[in-house]
Amino acid sequence: MARLFHAPLSPFCRKVRLSLAEKKIEVDLVEERYWEQDPDFLRRNPAGKVPVLKIDGKTMAESAAICEYLEEAYPDPGLMPKTADGRYEVRRLVSWFDDKFHQEVTSKLLYERVNKKVQGSGYPDSTNVKAGAKAVKYHLDYMAWLLDHRRWLAGDQMTLADFAAAAHLSSLDYISDVDWNRSDVVKDWYAKIKSRPAFRSILADQVSGFPPPPHYADLDF
């Protein structure tokens, strides 16, 4: 069985978990306190980051590379379009959420409010929290624009782009940092992807000291 070293609210880990679950690949989840820099973990990934996936006799790091491997090694069901243009758009949006959204929103809300307390690295920086709360509105509006023109974020089919976005937003939703009333189309998109079987284990996540809000696992929120 595959084994994934992960942190429950890490959007990068969640993206890999969604890909594994959608492809029905059984995986043993091992929660990793990566910030403690355990020597055994550093041997698996000298970068000291999660996720780390052990599968097919290999040890893999970096979520984007892991997801691309899974797509090539386990192509059914596909999470990338068949055309070069379609694959480009998926990769562009995955990068958008894992880079721009992460820097402007996730790192300023989730990391400030949860990670610092869990890791014992200080208190939230109110300036960062305010900046993240402002930036998430811009990103939700961009998603709404995409979904006004497409069935899913990257086109007519659900792709890794949707999983990347849902991974970040579900992590933020755990701490009630998403205004779902800002856009009906984004709310409907999230309800649709949240109801997939692949999402079940994510909705069961619990972080000590941070209980999820009542609506978190509600499929009819």
Return the structural class. Answer: alpha+beta
Radius of gyration: 17 Å
Biggest sheet, spatial arrangement of strands: 2-1-3-4
Shape: globular
Give the rounded overall mean pLDDT: 96
Helix content: 40-55%
Element order: H for helix, E for strand:
EHEHEEHHHHHH
Largest sheet: 4 strands, mixed
Structural notes for this entry:
The protein has 221 residues and is an alpha+beta fold. The protein has 8 helices and 4 strands. It has helices at residues 11-22, 39-44, 63-73, 84-119, 126-149, 160-173, 184-194, 200-203; strands spanning 2-6, 27-31, 52-55, 58-61. Strands 2-1-3-4 form a 4-stranded mixed beta sheet, covered by helices on one side. Helix 1 (11-22) packs across helix 6 (160-173), helix 4 (84-119) runs parallel beside helix 6 (160-173) and helix 5 packs across helix 7 (184-194). The protein is globular, with a radius of gyration of 17 Å. The model has no long low-confidence stretch (mean pLDDT 96).
